[in-house]
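User: Second chain of the day. Same drill as before.
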Amino acid sequence: MNQGPREIVTPFRPIPLTVPEGMKPNEFFNSAENIQDLAQNNGLLTNPENLLLYRKALGHSNEFDTSIIYNTSQTILDPLGRPVRRTQVPEAVKRVWNRMNQILIGYMLEKYPDPKQALVLAGEASLDATWPLTAPGVPSIRMLHNHFIVFPMDKLQAAPLADPANPNLTDGGQHSLFEEHTHDVYHRFFDEALSCQILSPLTSENSRIELTGYPQGLPCWEIANGVTSLSLRQFWQEYDAILMGFLDFYRTFFSQVSTRNAKLLKDLYFPDHVENILLCDNDFLKAAKKVRDRCMVDAKYANSIRWQPAFKQLIYRNEQGRLIVTISQNSIGNAITELLGVVVKRTPGEKDYENQEPALLEHLFEVRRRLVDADLGTGIATKQWPA
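Assistant: Same format as last time:
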């Protein structure tokens, strides 16, 4: 077996959606009108907390692929003012979202129990509010949303190797600024800031997907007792603590890039660890200086900096059967699957998609039924399916 990232082809059915004249597609995709259309054409379930489960029209995998979006489009019209990470979500909404996550991940692991037969992953993508809506590659929906995906391992094994220099593979955190220049302090900060009972740090050897060799260089934690821990409040508190640590690291680093010897930020989650570990670490501050110096003379590079934190946080299962949490920077164009070394090439193929659609919808209807039974929402009727 040749280890390396894979490029898998996923056919899709063209979306019958007309973008108004004078608008760029990603400008329209972030509009309240388009989100409403998404619910009407692909919606599966909604609830009073404004969490919308929907079928991915342009999916990553036609085996199993769905998303939950925190649909604030009808209540917050400013796309840049919508919540883009879990720390911005009200506690009452987060409790419901956690339960939905538990049921969806549990369903995938139940239906695909053999880790050598299926790659199972669930992750959140946060979009940086400093990205202009017109920038090429900005994701189509600027709201916090989860992805739930299954890839058959035999299809990944049969897929051709992806180019390791693909920018989406090299700019997702594995070979990024943090990994290249601040690897040791990045990992030490997490180790000392976090106090976990359910999550325990994993080495790269035990956390990677054997087929692809990814993730590379990212901090990873194993979930003790697997999927059963997802029903515990303690697990989600630790899951959020990882995000909080990432946000502190990211924001502190770029505050030092922006302003030499910047003051300690006021709204940190782990201020003592930031002050005693990050701001005392020469490698951390040397890396900030390198970025600052380049920003002064390279306008294109400076414009590419994401000054506010954007991230992908992922729960996945590797071939050893470990259920693992990881987190990475998010870059324009960088898809969540690529953290695990899976590049998805979407191609128009209406007939191929229609051949796979019945089995996909059967899964989605069954998991919707489980969510309804758990009082987590009500079904949505579309032209294609009943409520």
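The chain is about 35% helix and 20% strand.

User: Great, on to the next one.
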